[in-house]
Amino acid sequence: MELSGKVIAVLPLQSGNGRNGAWRKQDFILETNGKYPKKVCISMWGDRIDQFNIQEGQILTVSVEVESREYNGRWYTDVKAWKISADRSEDSPHETGTAPAPVNENPDTSDDLPF
C-alpha cells in the first residue's frame, strides 16, 4: 500500500534491548493529500532510519505494510515503512537537471491545426 503526503512531525527516536538484541524505532506523522487529509503515524525500524533520514516538511510517497496483532484481548495496529521516495516535483529545474521548455514568442499562425 502507498501513502503520499507531507511530513508534519518527526517523533523522537526510541531504542531498547529485546530478546533478539538491540532495536531502534522512529515514528513520523504523514498528512495525506486530498479534500479530507488524514494524519497517519508511520514507523521506521533499524537501518531504515538512517537510510531515509526523514525531515519535517518533506513531501513523500511511502510504501507501507499494515499489520495488526492481539495482546491481552486488545488489538494493536502498526504501519511500517519499507520504501520511501521523496517527491521531486517541487524542486527547481536546476536541482533536477532538466531545463524548462522554451516559449515561442512569435508563433506561426498560418497553420491553424489544433494539434
- Alpha carbon gap, first and last residue: 38 Å
Which residue ranges are poorly predicted, with pLDDT under 50 across at least 5 consecutive positions?
90-105
Taken as a percent bin, the fraction of beta residues is over 45%
Label the structural class: mainly beta
Structure, described:
With about 120 residues, the chain is mostly beta strands. About 10% of the residues lie in helices and about 50% in strands. The chain contains two helices and six strands, in the order ββββαββα. Strands 1, 2, 3, 4, 5 and 6 form a six-stranded antiparallel sheet that branches. It is globular and about 40 Å long. Residues about 90-105 have low confidence and may be disordered.
